[in-house]
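Exercise 7.
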Amino acid sequence: FYRVAKKDRWIDTNAVRLASEEIYVTKALPLMEGENWFSPFFIPDTSTVNYVFNTNLLPRGSIEADAATISWYTPDVGSVNATNYYSMVTNRIWLANSGWQYSIGGIGPAGGMIVPIDQAFNIELPAGMGTNLVLIGQLPTQAVTRIAGGASAFSVVDDTLWKYHVLSYGLPVRTAIENLGFAGSGLVGNNNPSLADEIRILSNVNGNGSLDQPKARLYLKSDGTTWAYRSYSTNDFPYGPPSANSYIIEPDESVVVVRRNTGGMTWTNPLPYSLPTKNMTP
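Solution. The predicted structure, written as tokens, is:
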């Protein structure tokens, strides 16, 4: 986290310490060859692809197969999970030598595409091209809300009827799932996991992403406050995971909300911090 100040206006010997009200947050995403599922944890100054992802931080190529790609997904056609590929890509871009280009969702240059900050994304890198991607943006200054519509029709087994919302948490704070605003949001709980909606966090440990067991699959029980695991990845938790209620969702992780049940869902997280002012305290 950082902010801007005129020379010496911020030093701690001043009676009044001044700086910009805007606070910026930055983090390096560790990217491996293959799939990397992450999400925005900030508000960009400018929401274009060129501004958020830059044009010289990821591998370029003369063809898509040799370059970095970034994909975003619709919830309307099924799943992003370890066994099925029903989810439809709404936008996919790739980093050509000349800059970002559309592969799906448009034609030609994609640098001006608006990044949907409410959604998570999948960055895929060619073999041997692992790297770190530094993202930066403003600290959010209002509650973060995500909408996750219900299934086309309830079904225990037909996952083509379910909705898989690939979302961003949107706040730069590590938070236990029990404190993440899912209770009372419309997410349906049930003691039988096959009847409950579900939260999935995809694994980023080896670049297999959606091809592997998710890092964690969690659901609410019928009381609407108790969380339980449906499964978890032993690659991520070789010695076992924390208790389900204490499971931590990282700010940059993709949050897949699986809606087996019909009905609306509005997931809202209030700010877990006070808004900054120009006065620095301490």
